[in-house]
Design goal:
Elements (H helix, E strand, L loop, with lengths): L6 E8 L9 H9 L3 H9 L3 E3 L15 E7 L17 E5 L3 E6 L16 H7 L24 E7 L2 H12 L4 E9 L6 E5 L2 E3 L7 E3 L7 E9 L3 E8 L6 H8 L14 H7 L6 E9 L6 E5 L4 H13 L1
GO molecular function, one term: RNA binding
Keywords: Isomerase, RNA-binding
Pfam family, one: S4
Length: 316
């Protein structure tokens, strides 16, 4: 596991009675405002003791138990977005209120602690685009995100009014988000809806899972083309949870081809020449924040996914 700590403040205090019975990682997250993943990593790295004993992240805490923890140093302010040109990032549309991009693989939406690769925001800054200042410092102008390994259409707000309107549209689920995904096997039924809550994976930091009590998550899928070993689906999202399509397809036992983190077959991925999940955000439709007119932006399959698709057709 990659360490989370550049060591910061050492804290010693009793566990509040109100947290009695919680898992240690959950209690740490509540007490210090940490993410569950960061709290679990602190325990795994030996930065936490309870009543002088080195615990496990899943141990249940007792109200009044004495807790010692070495908290991580606060991350650098995320306002220093490094303007960095990104090869392959295409501008699909640009006006006074929004800029729509076709995001290539290997690019994050915005800077994040521990991530040092290229970002959409950094690429736009390098190209001289003015982005809305609304939102958290590291994600100003960002109203939705795509995974680093997922390609496709993404809109960024340039004006403050556009940021507010688009955030509201995504929150109210009035934005139509369409994906193409190649999944292993053949879902049954061939058209359906997955309505299953998603939260952080209880045992695998950085991943997500269908978890009782997680955030409501709804995915619609429809078969577009069937192959011997896989299916091409068109997917629509009602919600926008992190890794939502990948988690829901894996929960159906039909993970995205190439998505090794969520159980895909590495042999099939190798035969298709895939180095990431076959998942592409091919269409985004919404009401333009300036005047309410409906707009739609699309992106063709990128070369690596198109090549894998042709190999599948040849194999079938």
């Amino acid at each position: 596991m990659t360490p989370v700590t550049t060591h910061g403040e050492r804290r010693s205090l009793p566990v509040p009675d109100g947290l009695d019975g919680l898992r240690l990682d959950a209690a740490l997250a509540r007490m210090f405002g940490l993410s569950r993943t960061t709290a679990a990593a602190l325990v795994d790295e030996g930065q936490v003791s309870v009543d002088g004993r080195v615990p496990d992240r899943s141990d249940r805490v007792r109200g009044g138990a004495w807790l010692d923890v070495e908290l991580p140093a606060p991350p650098r302010p995320a306002t220093d977005v490094a303007p960095t040109p990104v090869t392959g990032l295409t501008i699909l549309h640009d006006d006074d209120d929004i800029v729509v991009v076709d995001k290539p693989v290997g690019v994050a939406a915005h800077p994040a602690p521990g991530y040092t690769g290229p970002t959409v925001i950094g690429a736009l800054a390098a190209a001289g685009y003015r982005i809305a200042t609304s939102g958290a410092a590291e994600r100003q102008g960002v109203v939705h995100r795509l995974d680093v390994g997922t390609t496709g259409v993404m809109v960024v707000a340039k004006s403050e009014s556009a940021y507010a309107a688009l955030k509201r549209a995504f929150r109210e689920r009035s934005v139509d988000k369409r994906y193409r995904a190649v999944v292993q096997g053949h879902p049954d039924p061939l058209r359906g809806t997955v309505d299953a809550p998603i939260d952080r994976h209880p045992r695998k930091p950085g991943l997500f899972a269908v978890v009782a009590g997680g955030k409501p998550s709804v995915t619609h899928y429809d078969l577009d083309e069937a192959f011997r070993a896989a299916s091409l689906l068109v997917i629509g999202l009602e919600t926008g949870r992190t890794h939502q399509i990948r988690v829901h397809m894996a929960a159906l036992r039909h993970p995205c081809v190439g998505d090794l983190a969520y159980g895909a077959d590495p042999t099939l991925a190798e035969r298709l020449g895939l180095r990431r999940q076959w998942l592409h955000a091919y269409q985004l439709s919404f009401e333009h924040p300036a005047d309410g007119r409906p707009v739609t932006f699309t992106s063709p399959d990128p070369p690596d996914l198109a090549e894998a698709l042709e190999r599948l057709r040849t194999m079938s």
